[in-house]
Amino acid sequence: MAEENKNKKEIDKHSGVETTGHEWDGLKELNNPAPRWWMWVFLATVIWAFGYWVVYPAWPTLTGHTEGNLGWTQYKKLEGEQAEILARKEKYVSKIDSSSLQEIRNSSEVFEFARQAGESLFKDNCATCHQIGGAGAKGYPNLNDDDWIWGGTLEEIKTTLNHGIRAGDENTRVSAMPAFGKDGILQQADINKVTQYVLSLSGKNTDTNQDKIASGKQIYADNCVSCHGEKGEGNKDVGAPNLSDAIWLKAEGAEEIAGFISNPKMGVMPNWAGRLNDSQIKMLTIYVHSLGGGK
Ligand code: HEC
Ligand code: HEC
Question: Which tens digit of pLDDT belongs to each residue from 192-232?
């Protein structure tokens, strides 16, 4: 059949173009050449392909593939991109290393980098106790409010982070509230009275007997003022919380507060110097300060 068709070349009457001799049900194929531009593009792609084989990894071989003389791989590309990111970070980290906390706070660009890096360090190291975003939980202070036990200035926060609270560091923050009940300093009846007085400082007393509250005030003056202050305002030097702001760290309600006064359980916060480097501690300080820093 093919042999036969070859001999049947003819000129198409309508277009004046030679046919290929192929014919289906009276439809004939015209022997038009491919357009010249198409040929050039086709040739160019063929040349491109040869070039690509030489330069890039292309053909599978028994042991792997041809490497291409550029030595390009996706791993190397990734490494290059990561190195670029590191270099960009390095620029900020070295600024953080060489600046004081206040200088970092004052430079909006470095501050924003430190705050974000601090936030992710916080998730990794601190959120187990203080919760994500520093919301806190019973025994673990909320870091968002402006109520600070040990102090909320940049330097005070940094000291807390470096040395911890009642932690295994020679410069750690220490202080202990006496166990007034357990060690027999106060009788239970007196503990109940001073509890009502403490609650009355924020208008939360559950016993309204004024005599009891007055004698609770006397017990407070004799035993508690030295740490918690005359009006229960607290004292950051010894980490004694404010007792008049209705923000409770360790105990809430008459029963728990009386229990705490009787036998307090002191909070422990790990020291981070040595576990984290100085620039990480600075970034964390900036982050925590941005949450509720100040006083
Ligand atoms: C093992 C639990 C734990 C971890 C982890 C922890 N903390 Fe604490 N943190 C505490 C406790 C408990 C206190 C309160 C100590 C006290 O009662 O005085 C505290 C107190 C603080 C304070 C002082 C608050 C104030 O009012 O003065 C700051 C600031 C603080 N933590 C920040 C951090 C940061 C930042 C991290 C992560 C690097 C962290 N903490 C990790 C348990 C923890
Ligand atoms: C030597 C200092 C000191 C003395 C004296 C002292 N406290 Fe405290 N008190 C503290 C410290 C420090 C804390 C915080 C404990 C912690 O963070 O783990 C505290 C915590 C408390 C709390 C818990 C506050 C909260 O937010 O949950 C109450 C209540 C309290 N004290 C009441 C008293 C009363 C009442 C007296 C007197 C009978 C007294 N304290 C005497 C140091 C003292």
Answer: 999 999 999 999 999 999 999 999 999 999 999 999 999 99
Separation between Cα atoms, residue 150 and residue 240, nearest integer Å: 8
pLDDT at 294 > cutoff 80: no
> Which distant-in-sequence residues (6+ apart) come within 8 Å of 262 by Cβ?
179, 180, 181, 182, 188, 191
Query: What backbone phi and psi angles, to 5 degrees, belong to 279?
Result: -70, -30
- What ligand 1 atom has the least distance to the C-alpha of 284? 35
Mean per-residue pLDDT over the chain, rounded = 92
Between the CA of 249 and the centroid of ligand 1 the distance, in Å, is 12
Question: What whole-number distance in Å separates Cα of residue 126 and Cα of residue 120?
Answer: 10
202 lines ligand 2 (CB under 6 A): no
Residue 202 CA to residue 278 CA, distance in Å, equals 40
Measured from the Cα of 191, ligand 2's closest atom is 38
Using CA atoms, how far apart are residues 194 and 254, in angstroms rounded to an integer? 10
Name the nearest CA neighbour of 239 among 162, 158, 172, 285.
172
Atom in ligand 2 nearest the alpha carbon of residue 195: 35
CA angle 268, 273, 275 (to 5 degrees): 90
Mutate to test the pocket of ligand 1, among 101, 123, 129 (most ligand atoms within 8 A of CB): 129
pLDDT (tens digit per residue) in 49-79 = 999 999 999 899 999 889 888 888 999 999 9
What is the structure's pLDDT at 16? 87
- Of 122, 126, 269, the residue with max ligand 1 atoms within 8 A of its CB, to mutate for a pocket test, comes to 269
- Two structure tokens written together for 162: 């470096």
